[in-house]
Amino acid sequence: MPTTVKIPEDLRARHSRTREGRAWLSDLPDLIVAALTRWNLAVDLPAGVQPWNGHTGIVIPVRTASRDAAALKIAFPFEEALLEPVALTLWNGHGMVRILEHDTSSCSMVIERLDAEKSLLTVEMDDAIEVWGSTVRRLSIAPDIREGWDQIPHVAATAEQYSDDLPARWEDLNQPFPRWLLEAALEVCQTRGAVSRRRANDVLVHTDLHYLNVLATLDGTGYLAIDPQAQIGDAEFAVAPCLWNRLRDLPARDAEAGLRRRAGSLCAAAGLDESIAAEWAVVREVENALWYLETPGHLGDAQRSLWVASTMAGRTMPGLPAAHDLKMLD
Asked: 294-322 pLDDT, tens per residue?
């Protein structure tokens, strides 16, 4: 077993762009050693094999003192990463990977190990939708008396903020897409985003529940979600990432109708309201499009978001690439 861990190059490249990121990368080897020591873990990587990583952290397969398979995750300390242990504790294994240990000061935790090679990304779409739906049903727990709920942000508050921010960002970018699409997003924010109208059926929502974030268990008996970005609110807020991913699986003919059918199938599998899911998809993709347009080099991503947003609003924007010519995420 290796005692040192090589930092993946894409993680290093991503965080080398800022002073804070470079400082974190410099500290990361020591953070890894400290976590291994703190929790009596052994790295469980074959020689020459790199650990897993995402955009914001590293995940290292390990063995616990009792030789159980687990994973050590150390994230760059930003707000969502700091809230992840809180959300995992609230879910407590209900549709979500189970947290075993965590240390807030180093933004590190130990979680149960899943099969990183078996996500819903490569599962046949109909089956992936059924698994995704059952996962959402398990994840949709209501707030209770446990500590931690007050730290989780609300979807309604996010939407209320969008009501203030989206018009100004749209104007700053010289109105880069039709006003009707912006107004469609704002209408949803204003009707569903009032913080005062928190609903009795608000639940804990994994807001980044795309196909790569649902992995098979090691024993092959089921699937669990990973990498939560948690908010409290409409469970329908979770549908959108499954619409902007796996666009290649849409039919070549009338992909727009295919996207709307997919949304309906996801909602049926999860027991969600299709119209509410469509509304939130419009909001989320309009916000994504603005972010991409504000970020150099992301025109293709912005076009994809505008295609999804306008299609879910029922009026696909002209002038965009055809569905299968859009920049794909996977």
From this structure: 999 999 999 999 999 999 999 999 999 99
Instruction: Report, as an integer, the average pLDDT of 240-258.
Output: 97
Q: How far apart are CA 321 and CA 330, in angstroms?
A: 17
Q: Does any domain span residue 212?
A: yes
Residue 108 Cα distances to 111, 195, 222, angstroms: 10, 32, 26
Residues 204 and 287 both lie in one domain: yes
| Helix, strand, coil % over all residues of the chain, rounded to 5 | 50, 15, 35
| DSSP 3-state of 47 | coil
CATH number of the structural domain spanning residue 275: 3.90.1200.10
Domain boundary residue among 85, 113, 141? Answer: 113
The per-residue pLDDT for range 150-193, each reduced to its tens digit, is 999 999 999 999 999 999 999 999 999 999 999 999 999 998 87
> Buried (b) or exposed (e) across 291-318, using 16+ Cβ within 10 A?
ebbeeeebeebbbbbbbbbbbbbeebbe
Q: Using one digit for the tens of pLDDT, what is the confidence trace for 109-138?
A: 999 999 999 999 999 999 999 999 999 999
Same domain, 180 and 318: yes
Full-model pTM: 0.94
Cβ(197)–Cβ(191) below 8 Å: no
Residue 280 has a CB neighbour count (10 Å cut-off) of 26
142 part of a folded domain: yes
Q: Is residue 169 part of a domain?
A: yes
The rounded Cα 222 to chain-centroid distance in angstroms is: 20
249 counts as catalytic: no
User: Which listed residue (30, 165, 202, 208) is catalytic?
Assistant: 208
**Residue 2 domain-assigned (yes or no):** no
Q: How many domains does the chain have?
A: 2
Final residue belonging to a domain, choices 82, 113, 144: 113
Share of the chain above pLDDT 70, in %: 97
What is the CATH number for 40?
Answer: 3.30.200.20
